[in-house]
Design goal:
It comes from Sphingobacterium olei. InterPro entries: WH-like_DNA-bd_sf, WH_DNA-bd_sf. This is ArsR family transcriptional regulator. By secondary structure, the protein is α+β, with helices and mostly antiparallel strands. The chain contains seven helices and seven strands. The chain folds into two domains: 76 residues, Orthogonal Bundle (Arc Repressor Mutant, subunit A), CATH 1.10.10.10; 81 residues, Beta Polymerase, domain 2 (2-Layer Sandwich). Helices cover 44% and strands 25% of the residues. The chain has a four-stranded mixed beta sheet, with helices on one face. Strands 1-3-2 form a three-stranded antiparallel beta sheet. Helix 3 crosses helix 4 and helix 6 packs antiparallel against helix 7. The longest helix has 15 residues. It is globular and about 45 Å long.
Length: 169
């Protein structure tokens, strides 16, 4: 659905990366490796998104770090659009209602890489989590979102690609 509006797959991956959770950051080579794209394709999209004001860049040591510009007038609208596309807002709201002491919620797998595979993989870390409740919630969410929802409760070394959706302060 969103891919018909945003035809560049690289741009869509970058928007998901930076707008699913506003504190996500990235640099050129890291993003190229994460998305399995050429640095030229990533650079082109980063420059266009930065020139339009959607991303900000800052120099840190020898790297240029990119992050969503939360002061842009369309920031909230873009973030809502990306989260609606991922179907994450409803899922997260339900999780926090009854799930226990959640430390972090991350999107992993295909959607974290910007691939709409139909399977949302979510890693939930915390203390005293009600895993039975969360599993039932994942099943209900699957029906509502018309996507498969898989939950993980331990940080896996296999989940190299992740987008933090929530982190307890």
């Amino acid at each position: 659905m969103l891919e018909t509006l945003i035809t560049s797959k690289t741009r869509l991956k970058l928007l998901i990366k930076f707008f699913a959770y506003a504190t996500n950051k990235g640099y050129l080579r890291g993003l190229a490796e994460e998305f399995h794209e050429s640095t030229n394709a990533i650079r082109k999209e980063l420059n266009q998104l930065t020139d339009a004001g959607y991303l900000i860049r800052e120099q840190q040591d020898n790297k240029v770090i990119y992050q969503a510009n939360n002061k842009h007038p369309l920031f909230n609208s873009l973030q809502r659009l990306i989260r609606d596309y991922l179907g994450m807002d409803d899922l997260i709201d339900n999780i926090f209602a009854k799930a226990g002491d959640i430390e972090q919620v991350s999107l992993i797998g295909d959607y974290a890489r910007g691939v709409d595979s139909g399977t949302l993989e979510v890693c939930i870390l915390g203390n005293d989590l009600d895993t039975d409740y969360l599993s039932r919630l994942a099943n209900k969410s699957s029906e509502l979102l018309k996507k498969s929802v898989k939950l993980y409760f331990e940080k896996s070394p296999a989940s190299v690609h992740h987008i933090i959706l929530f982190k307890k302060k």
